[in-house]
Amino acid sequence: MSTPARFAAAGALFLAFFALIFSAGSALEVWPAPPDGGLRGSDLAAGFAFGLVLLVTLLRPRRERRLG
After folding, report:
1. Nearest to 15 by CA among 40, 48, 46
2. Could you give the CA distance from residue 48 to residue 50 in angstroms, rounded to a whole number?
3. Which parts of the chain register pLDDT below 50?
4. What burial letters (b/e) apply to 22-59, b meaning 16+ CB within 10 Å?
5. Nearest CA to 53 among 7, 8, 19, 20?
6. pTM of the entire structure?
7. CA distance 47 to 25
8. Which of 7, 34, 35, 45 has fewest C-beta within 10 Å?
Protein backbone atom coordinates (compact mmCIF):
# COMPACT_ATOMS: atom_id res chain seq x y z
CA MET A 1 0.00 0.00 0.00
CA SER A 2 1.39 3.40 -0.93
CA THR A 3 1.98 6.19 1.57
CA PRO A 4 -1.01 8.30 0.42
CA ALA A 5 -3.24 5.23 0.68
CA ARG A 6 -2.04 4.59 4.22
CA PHE A 7 -2.66 8.23 5.08
CA ALA A 8 -6.18 8.02 3.63
CA ALA A 9 -6.90 4.81 5.53
CA ALA A 10 -5.64 6.35 8.77
CA GLY A 11 -7.83 9.40 8.15
CA ALA A 12 -10.86 7.21 7.54
CA LEU A 13 -10.20 5.28 10.74
CA PHE A 14 -9.88 8.53 12.68
CA LEU A 15 -13.15 9.78 11.19
CA ALA A 16 -14.90 6.53 12.09
CA PHE A 17 -13.50 6.69 15.64
CA PHE A 18 -14.61 10.30 16.04
CA ALA A 19 -18.08 9.47 14.72
CA LEU A 20 -18.35 6.58 17.18
CA ILE A 21 -17.27 8.73 20.12
CA PHE A 22 -19.59 11.56 19.06
CA SER A 23 -22.54 9.18 18.65
CA ALA A 24 -21.91 7.55 22.03
CA GLY A 25 -21.64 10.96 23.69
CA SER A 26 -24.83 12.10 22.06
CA ALA A 27 -26.68 8.93 23.11
CA LEU A 28 -25.47 9.33 26.70
CA GLU A 29 -26.44 13.03 26.61
CA VAL A 30 -22.90 14.16 27.45
CA TRP A 31 -23.45 17.31 25.40
CA PRO A 32 -26.68 19.08 24.55
CA ALA A 33 -28.78 17.98 21.59
CA PRO A 34 -28.91 20.27 18.57
CA PRO A 35 -32.08 22.32 18.14
CA ASP A 36 -35.00 20.74 16.34
CA GLY A 37 -35.09 21.37 12.64
CA GLY A 38 -34.97 19.82 9.20
CA LEU A 39 -31.21 19.22 9.22
CA ARG A 40 -30.95 17.54 12.62
CA GLY A 41 -28.66 14.52 12.38
CA SER A 42 -27.67 15.14 8.77
CA ASP A 43 -24.21 16.53 9.58
CA LEU A 44 -22.89 13.18 10.75
CA ALA A 45 -24.28 11.37 7.72
CA ALA A 46 -22.92 14.00 5.33
CA GLY A 47 -19.48 13.90 6.96
CA PHE A 48 -19.37 10.11 6.79
CA ALA A 49 -20.46 10.10 3.14
CA PHE A 50 -17.81 12.69 2.24
CA GLY A 51 -15.13 10.73 4.09
CA LEU A 52 -16.13 7.53 2.34
CA VAL A 53 -16.04 9.15 -1.10
CA LEU A 54 -12.67 10.69 -0.32
CA LEU A 55 -11.29 7.36 0.86
CA VAL A 56 -12.46 5.53 -2.26
CA THR A 57 -11.05 8.28 -4.47
CA LEU A 58 -7.65 8.17 -2.80
CA LEU A 59 -7.41 4.37 -2.73
CA ARG A 60 -8.27 3.84 -6.40
CA PRO A 61 -5.32 2.79 -8.53
CA ARG A 62 -4.08 5.57 -10.75
CA ARG A 63 -4.36 5.25 -14.50
CA GLU A 64 -1.42 6.29 -16.60
CA ARG A 65 -2.15 9.11 -19.00
CA ARG A 66 -0.97 8.87 -22.56
CA LEU A 67 0.11 12.07 -24.18
CA GLY A 68 -0.55 12.46 -27.87
Report:
1. 48
2. 5
3. none
4. eeeeeeeeeeeeeeeeeeeeeeeeeeeeebeeebeeee
5. 8
6. 0.48
7. 17
8. 35
